[in-house]
Glucosamine-6-phosphate deaminase
Amino acid sequence: MEVVIVKDKAAQGELVAAAVARLVGEKPDALLGVATGSTPLPVYEALAALVAGGLDVSRLRVCQLDEYVGLPAGHPESYREVVRKEVVQRLGLPAGSFLGPDGGAGDIVAACAAYERVLAEAGGVDLQILGVGTDGHIGFNEPCSSLASRTRIKTLTEQTRVDNARFFGDDLSQVPQHVITQGIGTILEARHLVLLATGEGKAEAVAATVEGPLSALVPASALQLHPHATVVVDEAAASRLKLASYFKATYAHKPAWQGL
């Protein structure tokens, strides 16, 4: 996979936003897979700046990677609400551009199957933004998830709930125990995968993803199977990479027109 080491979050956001802008220029109705959490926010901020500068995203569509199960409609930490606020509103997209699973459905299994159909009928994801957990999970595909898995309900590990408690006022009891997530097999069907990580706390996960063996224990390592996967990390997140100097040199000599 391609590894790009940047100086900070702002540079990371600008680089990925530029890749999305090129995609929109080539395919105005592209389907952009978005992730939540703090890591991708600089990307959405940089995209908003490009839109303010004239980038036309009026036909762009966005889709969710995952969703909590059981949060009431409009809950500020439901991922639908987060995406609506951080992406749809910020970019000025029409409400109909947004695709996501129903975390409040009475039949969650049926809701998962329905979301798989929605993604297929939409033509598939053109570029999927991903974060990575400290344990190597992507989406909510926890360690030992099947590498062929599809959209499904998952039970969160204690570590992931602890990591996400900061979004719930550091009250672990308020963090849902179940989620809907695109499976690893579903994620791998996106045409371009862009994984983001910053900070030393993600360094081990990044190293295991990029340089470790393909393993269900590190779900993000499945990106090694993808023909167009890009990992964009800052210096701290890249600090455990044995080939960091090689990755830096490779990207430094990449033609500017080629992009991510």
Remarks:
- The two ends are 11 Å apart (CA to CA).
- The chain has one domain: 2-231.
- The longest helix spans residues 9-26.
